[in-house]
Amino acid sequence: MTFASLGLIEPLLRTLADLDYQTPTPVQSQSIPAVLKGRDLMAAAQTGTGKTAGFALPLLQRLTLEGAQVAGNSLRALVLVPTRELAEQVLQSFRSYGANLPLSSYAVYGGVSINPQMLRLRKGVDILVATPGRLLDLYRQNAVRFAQLQTLVLDEADRMLDLGFARELDELFSALPKRRQTLLFSATFSDVIRQMAGELLRDPLSVEVSPRNTAAKSVRQWLIPVDKKRKSELFLHLLKERRWGQVLVFAKTRKGVDQLEQALRASGVAADSIHGDKPQPARLRALERFKAGEVQVLVATDVAARGLDIEALPLVVNLDLPVNAEDYVHRIGRTGRAGSSGEAVSLVCADEVELLAAIERLIRQVLSRREEPGFIPDHRVPQTTLDGQILKKPKKPKQKLIPGAAKSGSKGNIHLGRWFEEDEARPKVKAVRKVPSFGSKPQGGKR
Ligand code: AMP
């Protein structure tokens, strides 16, 4: 299969040759012809599978061939994304894929001044990439009009809902022309997303290029059990001992991110961070420095988990497991992209066993455990099973004291509950393979 056989025009083929994209990825070979024909699309694609080009290339082509002039404060295609970083990244993709085409593109998102955005929108723009909150602000201030809009793309639709954009989306959808093409992309699908798709899409083509809710096969995943209070120390130890190169580390809270960043800097490691409390320019700068290799360790909350494309990132570490199991898939999707291999290591403490079980059930894989000498936890992480069970430590049976048997220090005839050690072969548990139905919510996930 070639890009030419998908019906792409010559200027796009030239750009793809310059980018050294030789063959379309599966999501591209399915999406491109359908989008070119004007069909609606509902695509479930793994992270890093090339889905951005899957919608950007045919969209650029349609806009070019139709050739309409965009009016002031208007747009012809709208791409909604959940985060500011993703907005910048998708914009850059449109600009790079559209390098040989006479189309304009621009991105609007919160966290930066709205005035330059209002100014730029006055001339109108062919392709606008936006986060929902800022776009709604602009719409309410009459800085954007949707009358000319012909295509709407929802990228990472599930993430937009997770981030609480449901109300903004509702208001925006009702302002959009009813006659339009809609493309919905999401790495994971929940019931709510399916319902949204049912309301927004007309006779959509369903594209699913990989098993749902699984990370790229090229990512080697494993975990190290550790006590909660020793996680940062273990991370520093691993970084040094295993001579890790560039690492993207995810922590649960902003505070956790700051603490690890400080500990790293104090040890002389070039580290930076991204989280919601940081001003947007600082977040973008941190990402750019990491991409340029000036920073060895980038510490982030889940704000950074979705969609970011960091070339050839070898390693992702979960300092904390995500509360939402689906975020695990997105986090580790930052590595092993575009065919290269990657590694994802999670530092897991006993408190997190339920999150672990939910993740393993979602990805249908029990993560292999490796203890790190010197960091064997006092609080053992209970074993988990493929169907999301946690093998709790059996309770001690009630003591039946037999006179004379219980001397000081002796266990008498009390049967001690046995616990399974990390290194032991896992006990035989009937591994009922429960495959969640499409749209089922991950266990333990917070919505
Ligand atoms: P995405 O999933 O859209 O974020 O893309 C992941 C990465 O794959 C990006 O770095 C793209 O530049 C790259 N990519 C996308 N499509 C292709 C292709 N057909 N051949 C080679 N690389 C690609």
Q: What is the arithmetic mean of pLDDT?
A: 83
What is the C-level CATH assignment of the largest domain? Alpha Beta
Per the CATH scheme, the topology name of the largest domain is Rossmann fold
**Structural class by secondary-structure content:** alpha/beta
Instruction: Give the number of domains.
Output: 3
Radius of gyration: 25 Å
Describe this structure in words.
By secondary structure, this protein is an alpha/beta fold. It has 3 domains: 4-208, Rossmann fold; 219-369, Rossmann fold (3-Layer(aba) Sandwich); 398-447, no CATH class. Helices cover 33% and strands 16% of the residues. It contains 14 helices and 16 strands. The chain has helices at 10-18, 26-36, 51-66, 84-97, 115-121, 132-140, 157-162, 166-175, 191-200, 231-241, 254-266, 280-291, 325-332, 353-363, and strands at residues 41-44, 75-80, 105-108, 125-130, 151-154, 181-186, 205-208, 219-225, 247-250, 271-274, 297-300, 315-318, 342-348, 368-369, 383-384, 390-391. A 7-stranded parallel β-sheet has the order 3-4-2-5-6-1-7, sandwiched between helices. Helix 12 links the parallel strand 10 and strand 11 (297-300). Helix 3 crosses helix 4. The protein is globular, with a radius of gyration of 25 Å. 43% of the residues are buried. Residues 400-447 have low confidence and may be disordered. Adenosine monophosphate binds at residues 21, 24-25, 28, 48-53, 309, 337-338.
